[in-house]
Design a protein that fits this description.
about 325 residues, mainly alpha
């Protein structure tokens, strides 16, 4: 099934040229529809982006304003995340130096520090999910910006207002990460309860090493490849998944968010294991996600990251085994 999806994604431009849909039909847009170029398996080249940025029309101005808004939103999310991480009483992350390997021994407290110290509670869940969603916005919006901009461009080319549908699309995208935060909260609280009864010293390094190795192996799987190609192909995604209206914008945002989650869940599992509010891990994973999705040679970058995770996992796992 994954191979079929991958093949259809690669051949999306061939199918699109044979089907030109009418505006307002609610069906996926064809590649000849105004505002969309032919889908490709990579993002637009630098030259095309510069022409897009310097467009002198009102559309070009709207694009620049939207990009500025995304930049402000991302900076605000990072500011809130940094404030919370630096304001916590507990350290934002441990180190793995020294004989005590304190960073791995305190994996549970690192993962929940400043987020869910009160244990299972509705208030704790709300706080955790809110902080998680802000953190995901800070880390993921830079990589999602090309998709958001292409969606806005397609909306504007249809002669419709692009502002509200674009932010609805973005909200649908973040809704996926909010939902993931609920799942992470349950996992973190369950792990914290287990460690508090059994003690984390013996098996925390093994758990962390295992998660690192699993995350590294996932970088080489077909599912990772399919999701990454969708994330790296905003034109193809819009052409294949277009839906009209505000409900359509929500649906497209959620679908893109699911592809993004499928692409990055293993990396964020490492973040949860190593310390949710670890600034070093947040910055490293933000750069890794951006490099995979936006920069050239994204699939090769993903494999290099996978090798690095496997090596790191073995370095943590083997001494403790």
């Amino acid at each position: 099934m994954i191979k079929d999806v991958d093949a259809r994604h690669k051949a999306g431009h061939d199918d699109g040229d044979a089907k030109t849909n009418r505006p307002g039909s609610g069906r996926p847009l064809s590649t000849s529809w105004p505002g969309l170029s032919r889908p490709s398996t990579s993002l637009p080249r630098i030259r095309g982006f510069l022409g897009w940025w310097h467009a002198g029309s009102s559309l070009g101005k709207a694009r620049r304003n939207l990009l500025l808004c995304l930049l402000v939103l991302t900076c605000a999310a990072w500011a809130l995340t940094l404030y919370h991480a630096l304001d916590m009483d507990a350290p934002a992350g441990g180190t793995m130096s020294g004989d005590s390997m304190s960073g791995m021994d305190n994996m549970a407290s690192m993962a929940t520090s400043g987020l869910s110290a009160a244990g299972w509670s509705l208030a704790g869940a709300v706080v955790f999910v809110a902080i998680w969603t802000v953190m995901m916005a800070a880390m993921m919006l830079p990589a999602a910006a090309p998709m958001i901009m292409i969606f806005a461009s397609a909306q504007a080319r249809r002669g419709q207002g692009a502002l509200v549908p674009t932010w609805i699309f973005t909200a649908g995208y973040l809704l996926v990460w909010l939902t993931a935060g609920v799942i992470v909260y349950v996992i973190v609280e369950a792990a914290t309860g287990t460690m508090s009864h059994s003690g984390a010293t013996a098996w925390a390094p093994i758990a962390l090493g295992t998660i690192l190795v699993v995350a590294g192996i996932y970088q080489f799987t077909p599912l990772k490849r399919v999701c990454l190609r969708h994330c790296r192909s905003p034109f193809a995604f819009v052409a294949m998944h277009w839906r009209d209206g505000r409900l359509g914008a929500v649906r497209m945002g959620v679908v893109h968010g699911l592809f993004c989650l499928g692409c990055c869940w293993a990396l964020f599992a490492v973040l949860v294991a190593a310390g949710v509010m670890s600034l070093a891990w947040m910055l490293a994973l933000t750069l890794a996600v951006f490099a995979e999705k936006v920069l050239p040679l994204g699939e090769l970058t993903a494999r290099v990251i996978g090798i690095a995770l496997i090596v790191a996992g073995l370095a943590v796992f083997l001494p403790a085994a």
